[in-house]
Amino acid sequence: MSLRINDLAPNFTAETTHGTINFHEWIGDNWAVLFSHPKDFTPVCTTELGVVAGLEADFAKRGAKVIGLSVDPVENHGKWAKDILDVSGSAVNYPIIGDTELKVAKLYDMLASDAGESCEGRTPADNAPVRTVFVIGPDKRIKLTLAYPMTTGRNFDEIIRVLDSMQLTAKHKVATPANWKQGEDVIITGAEPVGIFEQAAVDAVKKWRYKPAQRDGHAVDQRARLRMKFALDK
């Protein structure tokens, strides 16, 4: 089943390092970040799990829970956690799913339906597509999907940046421009311009004319300048 943004995130029950969970119940009213790995003890994944362990508090203060997945038994995850601590200096305190029967990997379209029913005998290369990130909202719908090659470590600072954007834009009628970071200017969307001078600013933006809007030699108010700076969703 192909998954797209705004699709309902498939629910499942799975064994994790924190015991058995029902995924939707585990999410609760929070945001969730599910990130997957092809096998335990793979070097790039080891660094990623360590980075997330170090960032767990940053996710938590945004109301987001993190959960890993690897195509190996839960008991192996416990051994792997020691390596992760040695490499990164951070202890893994979030749950990691043991997807031994490939059920979650198939459910989330990481592996084909005919990939088999056991992790036994499978190599990291066999499971190469199991390198995804899903960000899921409190409404249990998929808000972001990312897929990475095995040789490229994921940028979790970017995932936090996108999480900040999605949470902001879920509350306010704004959008965020390229490379936006928390606290920077945003794009106003869905707001009606007020007055002739603001309308002129909006028209200039739509034509990509980046020049100050003037009225009797003075710049128009901040709202008009903000609309001048970024394209509106009109």
Structure described in brief:
The protein is α+β, with helices and mostly antiparallel strands and 234 residues long. Helices cover 33% and strands 19% of the residues.
User: What is the count of DSSP helices, taking H or I runs of 4+ residues?
Assistant: 7
Largest sheet: 5 strands, mixed
The mean pLDDT is 87
The helix/strand order is EEHEHEHEHEEHEEHEEH
Sheet with the most strands: spatial strand order? 5-4-3-6-7
Strand content: 15-25%
What structural class do the secondary elements suggest?
alpha+beta
Gyration radius (Cα, Å) is 22 Å
Strand element count: 11
Specify the overall morphology.
globular
Low-confidence regions: 192-197, 204-234
Describe the structure.
The model is unreliable at 192-197 and 204-234 (pLDDT under 50). Helix 3 links the parallel strand 4 (64-70) and strand 5 (96-98). This protein has a five-stranded mixed beta sheet with strand order 5-4-3-6-7. It has seven helices and eleven strands. By secondary structure, the chain is an alpha+beta fold. The radius of gyration is 22 Å and the shape is globular. Helix 2 crosses helix 3 (74-88) and helix 6 (196-206) runs parallel beside helix 7.
